[in-house]
Amino acid sequence: MNRRFFFEGWPTGDLSRFPEVCYNDPQNPPNNRFQGLIDGHRDELDAVLSKSPTGPIGARTGELAARMADTLWRKGTA
Fold first, then answer.
1. Burial state string for 14-39 with b = 16 or more CB within 10 A and e = fewer than 16
2. Structural domain containing residue 57
3. Model pTM greater than 0.85?
4. How far is CA 33 from CA 23, 64, 69, 70, 73, in A?
5. Separation of alpha carbons 1 and 23, rounded Å
6. Running along the chain, 78 residues long, what does each successive block of 10 average in pLDDT?
7. What is the count of structural domains for the chain?
8. How far is CA 26 from CA 52, 71, 77, 78, in A?
9. Is there a contact between 15 and 72 (Cβ–Cβ < 8 Å)?
């Protein structure tokens, strides 16, 4: 899997390609740190996922949401 989009997403905040590669596995919920980031960016995450042709796969939170929220956090702290 090409993870270059992760590194491109950090400075730009572009989350559009994340749903193509990650998904929210209901059996692997995020830890407390990531859940806090997800909760803090929930509206932004939902907006991106609603426009995605692949849409959110799996649960509402998980690896996909955690990686997207972490990217938004990184962009905000850069």
1. ebebbbeebbbeeeeebeeebeebbe
2. 4-77
3. no
4. 18, 14, 10, 10, 12
5. 14
6. 65 78 87 95 90 74 91 81
7. 1
8. 19, 21, 29, 31
9. yes
